[in-house]
Design goal:
Elements: E1 2-9, E2 14-21, E3 25-33, E4 41-46, E5 49-54, H1 60-73, E6 83-90, E7 101-102, H2 105-113, H3 122-135, E8 140-145, H4 155-158, H5 164-170, H6 179-193, E9 201-207, E10 211-217, E11 220-224, H7 247-255, H8 259-268, H9 271-276, H10 282-290, H11 294-317, E12 323-327, H12 328-333, H13 335-341, E13 364-365, E14 374-377, H14 382-392
Parallel strand pairs: 1-6, 6-8, 9-12, 12-14
Antiparallel strand pairs: 1-2, 2-3, 3-4, 4-5, 7-8, 9-10, 10-11, 13-14
The structure holds adenosine-5'-diphosphate (ADP).
Residues 208-210, 237, 281-283, 286, 328-330, 333-334, 360 line the site of adenosine-5'-diphosphate.
Length: 399
């Protein structure tokens, strides 16, 4: 048995989950926010109870020390030496990383070099890696990439129809994200269906604040809706998803905003928030639509119809589909979105039960037993995938 910690570090936050492996039991989980700002927030979930503390946390290294102190404080470990591995979620692995890797000086340097492709995310992830290295220098550390699962996409899927040398010279291509989640739910779907993943064509819909759809054939991602960045694809909480690129100079001209400002609008003020003018949180939109708010209703329709179209397109790419999977905050919880996404898909063999659809956050098949295409709700678990990879990846033995 061993204790493995899964880490997701952002620029001012750090999420963690400590697992007992191989049982995959979660011993403790938590979130540290406002690192480097005043009034940091340390939230920890231990034995089903939430403990919150407001305390200044100057940097990530201090956050890591506090976190490790908590583990001994709550008696989760007798000594921090019991931690045998650390798994770090890294957003961008470019074309270099097709799988998780051991973090060494060399691999860490490559991740830093990829910051060009993910300037908001990779540097923050690296800060997390370094903070742990400072405090636990001799513990095995592994990087798990959001992009890795999608590295199996064929060129016809990942290549933009732009001058080819942009791909060669600047790495301009579709990378895709949420890979760890798409991989987890696809593997779990195969388990639940009792069929080898090699034989399955799956469409996985990860619908959270960020949302992406993936076409998974034989366990491999062959296409996904996010692109060079997570801005592409379906409409999201605050992101526009795909738009006509010619709109960017047009909006700049009309509104007098700079290109950075327009990009900010596309990332933070569009999607469900932009259309509804109310909120990026789907629960608020569902409530407003229920009360007759037209723009909230429109936001629900735009959000679900984009996903609906991706399902048709991915089914076409795989010459059919065996199961459609819903996951993440909206996918797991919103019967309203699921029912709209699945509307009118009987023509392709999707028969689902509205009564079974009335469920939140539970693993469940909501299609009728006779439905050729299964529809499944599978709560995602990126953290356990990280912990599994930490166990799986060997440490080289030096003689
Ligand atoms: P993130 O991408 O930040 O991890 P989540 O996967 O937590 O996001 O998803 C957040 C989204 O899930 C929000 O839009 C939220 O409104 C939605 N959501 C969570 N619970 C429910 C629910 N019970 N009904 C409808 N939507 C929900």
């Amino acid at each position: 048995m061993s204790k493995i910690i899964a880490i997701n570090a952002g620029s001012s936050s750090l999420k963690f989950q400590l697992f007992e492996m191989p049982s995959e039991e979660v011993l403790i989980a938590g979130l540290i926010e406002r690192i480097g700002l005043d009034k940091g927030v340390f939230t920890i979930l231990v034995n089903g109870e939430k403990v919150k503390e407001i305390i200044d946390i100057p940097d990530h290294a201090v956050a890591v020390k506090m976190l490790l102190n908590k583990l001994t404080h709550f008696g989760i470990v007798k000594s921090i030496n019991e931690i045998e591995g650390i798994g770090h979620r890294i957003v961008h692995g470019g074309e270099i990383f097709h799988n998780s890797v051991l973090l060494t000086d060399e691999t860490l340097q490559k991740i830093e070099e990829l910051s060009d492709l993910a300037p908001l995310h990779n540097p923050a992830n690296v800060v997390g890696v370094k903070a742990f290295k400072e405090v636990l220098p001799n513990v095995k550390a592994v990087a798990v990439f959001d992009t890795a699962f999608h590295q199996t996409m064929p060129e016809r899927s990942f290549l933009y129809s732009l001058p080819y040398e942009y791909y060669e010279n600047y790495g301009i291509r579709k990378y895709g994200f949420h890979g760890t989640s798409h991989q987890y739910v696809s593997e779990r779907a195969a388990e639940l269906l009792g069929r080898p993943i090699e034989q399955l064509r799956l469409i996985s819909c990860h619908l959270g604040n960020g949302a992406s759809i993936a076409a998974i054939e034989g366990g491999k991602s062959i296409d996904t809706s996010m692109g060079f960045t997570p801005l592409a694809g379906v409409a999201m909480g605050t992101r526009s998803g795909n738009i006509d690129p010619a709109l960017i100079p047009f909006i700049m001209e009309k509104t007098g905003q700079s290109e950075i400002e327009v990009l900010d609008i596309l990332n933070k003020k569009s999607g469900i928030l932009g259309i509804s003018g109310l909120s990026s949180d789907l629960r608020d939109i569902e409530q407003a639509a229920e009360k007759g708010n037209d723009r909230a209703e429109t936001a629900l329709e735009v959000f679900s119809s984009r996903i609906h179209k991706y399902i048709g397109s991915y089914a076409a790419q795989m010459s059919g589909v065996d199961a459609i999977i819903f996951t993440a905050g909206i996918g797991e919880n919103s019967d309203i979105i699921r029912s709209r996404v699945l509307r009118g898909l009987k023509f392709m063999g999707v028969y689902w039960d509205p009564a079974l659809n009335q469920v939140r956050g539970e693993e469940r098949c909501i299609s009728y037993p006779h439905s050729p295409v299964k529809v499944m709700i599978i709560p995602t678990n990126e953290e356990v995938m990280i912990a599994r990879d930490v166990v799986k990846i060997p440490v080289p033995v030096h003689h």
